[in-house]
Specification:
The chain is α+β, with helices and mostly antiparallel strands. It has 9 helices and 4 strands; from the N terminus they run αααααβααβαβαβ. Strand 2 (198-204), helix 8 and strand 3 form a beta-alpha-beta unit.
Length: 276
């Protein structure tokens, strides 16, 4: 019986020794974390960190081969798991950073284009007004002056100037607060309009997204903000009005993001002042 008991004990110890050779839970977690990092789309932005995680996992595997279940295996496996997780985190951060950079570059390019367009429209308006003043100044006598005024009236009626400004370049998103870039654009417009005896309409437009009440309020508040700023810059308040047009009169399709962006705009309409 003593011999049988000893044999059973040896078999039991051998079985326990075999069971202890498997990877620890820490090593299994490290393997799963590395595999997740290796296939994660974000990790392609930080390949050097994925490589660090791989090397850390290899060190944990070597420790397991040398002494399964050891403290060193567990410690190295923990480090490998953390590095794999960091590879994914830094990958997401880098992906977001590149996305923001691309969006900023596109916004700046669009803003520059809108600024050039606004400057061109302002220059054309200034040219028409200066041409009218020159015509009035060169004609002598009451009859000649009246004829010149009639000619100027006809020119102004034929030249209804519309200055279109992109809302994204003027306002904070979904608000009526003017951006610094928007104030700069309106400064150029105000220089042209403040000395002219014309009627000015500021028309605010939205896209078709959202309910009618919200669009009416936002379009009116944006038109009011532009009017207030132009008055602040010297345009006579009795010559300028603000109207919220909501989503009516779209200039592009509201079915696409680009079309909706074009429809979110402010139009400054300059035309001859109506006399009683």
């Amino acid at each position: 019986m003593r011999t049988s008991s000893l044999a059973f004990s040896l078999v039991s110890l051998t079985a326990l020794g075999c069971a202890s050779t498997g990877p620890t839970p820490e090593l299994l977690d490290a393997r799963r974390a590395y595999e997740a990092a290796r296939v994660a789309p974000e990790a392609r932005y930080t390949p050097e960190r994925v490589l660090e995680a791989k090397r850390a996992l290899e060190r944990a595997e070597y420790a397991h081969d040398d002494e399964p279940g050891s403290f060193e295996e567990k410690s190295l496996a923990y480090i490998a798991e953390r590095r794999a997780e960091l590879a994914v985190v830094y990958g997401r951060y880098e992906a977001d950073r590149r996305l923001r950079w691309t969006a900023d570059a596109q916004y700046k390019a669009r803003e520059d284009g809108l600024r050039r367009e606004a400057e061109k429209n302002a220059a054309e308006t200034r040219g028409v007004l200066e041409g009218t003043r020159a015509t009035l100044g060169t004609v002598q006598g009451n009859s000649g002056q009246e004829q010149a005024r009639q000619q100027a009236d006809g020119a102004e009626e034929a030249r209804r100037t519309v200055i279109t400004l992109d809302a994204s370049a003027l306002f904070v998103a979904n608000k009526s607060e003017l951006l610094p870039s928007g104030r700069q654009k309106l400064d150029e417009v105000a220089k042209t309009l403040k000395d002219a005896a014309d009627d000015i309409s500021v028309l605010g437009y939205t896209d078709s997204q959202g309910d009618a009440g919200t669009n009416r309020r936002l379009s009116q508040e944006r038109a009011d903000a532009v009017r207030a700023y132009l008055v602040e810059r010297g345009v006579a308040p009795d010559r300028i009005k603000a109207v919220g047009k909501r989503e009516i009169d779209p200039v592009a399709s509201n079915a696409t993001p680009g079309g909706r962006a074009d429809n979110r705009r402010v139009e400054i309409v300059v035309e001859k002042r109506q006399t009683p």
